[in-house]
Amino acid sequence: MFPARVAREMPHRYRLEAAKCKKCGAVFFPHRLICRECGHREFDTINVSAIGKLISYTVIHTPASQFKDESPFALGICEFLEGVKITAQVVDIAAADIKTGMDLQIEFRRVQTDGHAGVIGYGYKFVPLI
Amino acid sequence: MFPARVAREMPHRYRLEAAKCKKCGAVFFPHRLICRECGHREFDTINVSAIGKLISYTVIHTPASQFKDESPFALGICEFLEGVKITAQVVDIAAADIKTGMDLQIEFRRVQTDGHAGVIGYGYKFVPLI
Amino acid sequence: MRDVAIVGVGMQKWGELWEKSFRDLFVEAALNAISDTKVPKIDHMYIGCMTGGLFVGQEHVGSIMADYLGQKHLAATRVESACASGGAALRCGFIEVASGMSDIVLVGGVEKMTDVSGDGATYALATAADQEYEVFHGATFPGLYALMARAYMERYGATRDQLSAVAVKNHDNGLNNPNAQYQMKLTVQQVNESVMVADPLRILDCSPITDGAAALILCPLSRAKEFSDKPPIKIIGCGMATDSIALHDRRDLTSLDAVRISAEQALKMAGKKIGDINVTEVHDCFTIAEIIVSEALGMFPAGKGALACVNGETRVEGKFPINASGGLKSKGHPVGATGVAQAIEIVHQLRGEAGKRQVKNAKIGMTQNMGGSGGSSVVHIMEVA
Amino acid sequence: MRDVAIVGVGMQKWGELWEKSFRDLFVEAALNAISDTKVPKIDHMYIGCMTGGLFVGQEHVGSIMADYLGQKHLAATRVESACASGGAALRCGFIEVASGMSDIVLVGGVEKMTDVSGDGATYALATAADQEYEVFHGATFPGLYALMARAYMERYGATRDQLSAVAVKNHDNGLNNPNAQYQMKLTVQQVNESVMVADPLRILDCSPITDGAAALILCPLSRAKEFSDKPPIKIIGCGMATDSIALHDRRDLTSLDAVRISAEQALKMAGKKIGDINVTEVHDCFTIAEIIVSEALGMFPAGKGALACVNGETRVEGKFPINASGGLKSKGHPVGATGVAQAIEIVHQLRGEAGKRQVKNAKIGMTQNMGGSGGSSVVHIMEVA
Ligand SMILES: [Zn+2]
Ligand SMILES: [Zn+2]
Fold this sequence. Notes:
The complex is a heterotetramer, with two copies of chain A (130 residues) and two copies of chain C (385 residues).
Chain A: H1 4-13, E1 17-21, E2 27-28, E3 43-47, E4 51-60, E5 73-80, E6 85-90, E7 103-112, E8 121-128
Antiparallel strand pairs in A: 1-2, 1-3, 4-5, 4-7, 5-6, 7-8
Chain C: E1 4-11, H1 22-35, E2 44-48, H2 52-56, H3 61-68, E3 76-80, H4 85-99, E4 105-111, H5 118-126, H6 141-156, H7 160-174, H8 188-192, E5 196-198, E6 201-202, E7 212-220, H9 224-227, E8 233-242, H10 257-270, E9 279-281, H11 287-296, H12 305-310, H13 327-331, H14 335-351, E10 364-371, E11 376-384
Helix pairs in contact in C: 4-14, 7-11
Bound molecules: zinc ion (2 copies).
One zinc ion (ZN) is lined by residues 21, 23-24, 26, 35, 37-38, 40 of chain B.
């Protein structure tokens, strides 16, 4: 059985579900109960598009314990068509080849081998376009 | 090397050192920087006497994880001649034989096998008089 | 100091709310409170939360909750006093409005306790006790209250049945509270025979592990009519006190001095006597706690609290109705939220909207919220303005 | 609201204080603050602490600290806003005295960070970020500020040398502060060549892991002469704001809106403009933070903060002296204590007792304390009364 914490985040982490405000159209990832832009409380569920633009990145050399084995690893923020920005690891590319402004694609991967929650965590990572 | 946290508590946990207010004589275990009774800030170091009187006890059936192996175990509060009261496990006696008001003696034992701090913790426990 | 009123309240049905995250729990309760009013915006927010760090790996509680509440840039302060975090947050909110620093303040409380294992929750809760001189030796919260219970029973001759009567009474009340986690009737025998947790306390002496949140809206009394058509509830007394963190450092295991002192302060500020209070919510984290608290508040002499409950004096129709909501025992105990939810129950009682658990002619109400084994206590007194 | 003054301050030399426990650290600083005054007793206490739970397994911080401070039954409230916990505690204390609820309030801050491993500290600090949408993916605090640093450098053409200039300046100041953790001179080259932590940030861009505490005493300005012969320092402005907890949810990675808004609030309350401020302590948890904060405060236009530091404008003798104390970078950063220690430095500066790091003719001072990657900010403005 999945721990509740993993199950709860599955729509976002596994299916990239976002919430689009029915009133003003603002998009939030993950979902919210009230729109940060207009205060409306009803949303449509949409999916974040698969390709985003990298707006900044870093290479982390001193991670928390559950990421020790992968260190150093790149972490970036991508901006997507819907207006949402997402933080995730940038993988399958050498650090020297990562450039701000490049397009990256979202893929489903194992993220943590064993977090403080004591479970294997799966979710999205950014990879280069094929 | 001892972690700092263990070394810091050694005077209290290993040697039962208490602080006696130089002004009003109140005794504190562990030490304090200011007397809770009179506000004085100078103390003499004394040792808590080895035998105390049990003023209440319980038998814990649902402990935190580092005490799982010993569950159920008795925990009591003893009052000592110097006026201090101390909480510790009551061991080497069947739960049914523990009585409020009985005299118990302090002994040095292993207390935790592996706490959240990740170290083996030694300290005092209460045992019956020989 | 300006007069301060509660003009809106909100929570949700509490329980093991696996589908609701820490942030969603809080936002849901806060939106319910906002919807209970006509306030246009919030000026400041206080959030009671005992340990977001250990329960969900999330501190910086003010920032995340202001963000997800959709209140851009809202200043928000998280407040902690163990299980009295909610009461401490209410005190801060009261002072913020009384001072004139802010007009509209949201006071909330939240705890998400079921994302960790039972062991993990036991560890997290034990951080309210002395980590080095209680917890290191194996003390748990039921264990500390068990030490108080045995001392009380031996000194005053209180019985197992008398402890159980507290749980039975609170579950009877909780049956009439749709937001309660456990809406089920208990018998003395069921409590007496339930699984041992820390002798003499059994599982049905203990409040449960709960996910939940609660929130209320404060404003200057002079502006209350702008924001609500319901009767404004004025905060007339506020007291807070601490005691030694370690139970063994108290002068007496069967007394709760922080409770006594915080109640004396609040009564003095309100200009009331305990006999003036019509309805009270107290911190019954364990059956023994409600008994000793009722004595510390001055309702009953030392050693007589257990019998008073058995005699019905603390029932909804009694002289001192205690925990008409069902208390922590039946309603649940998401530690950071509890103090705020206590105030919400008093608001419902004073507004006359408590339904089947309504205390008749309730004009003045009191809340008592406790941290740890009595290391802190916060008391509020409210009346219909 | 009553006028409020700071009449006493205390801390200790910060560092890796292995021999001092969580409780002793706090009590030592609090006793030093009390000894700096003639106050007979404390009416209430606020304690800033980010995560006693994760660093030392101790919550219920108010109870344990009141107990070990020897102040029987003193009401004490712990306040958290991540690394801005100290600033948030000062805001609460200011309001408590301003309201008339209490006359003498001790505001303290404490963090004991070296009882856990480096990994453990990284985890504990990361709970100030979004646990589910940043930390889950591997974000650390240096990592988040590194994302800001790269965006800033690429947008404005800031250089590696310019980041390093901030560290060099703050270490130069720290040489003159006997309480600073690192009293050592740095060169641009040393910073540039130090170990990489999160590209482009290196270890000497980062504030250290520190054990420490700080405390100050507040009272109504009208009573300040009773308690101290030193010039009372009046709090004339107080601002606080939040922003999204996740860095990626901000409108712009190179701005800090919570800082800008909290500063605007405080300046408005004080009736001052940024040009009126003679001395400022800001939250330089990383070199890039000081640069962006100096812009958000309105000292320099966006993109010009890095150059302003290089040009000496933020040195003790510059137009806008920043972090004369050495800042978090040299003084150390026990997260819950930092905001309180910033106020202590301003008190020393306004009293004219800052020795070799004294800013000339300092009459008005400002503190800016930040939580997380900018998810909260608290600003205070003070002047010699
Ligand atoms: Zn909208
Ligand atoms: Zn003394």
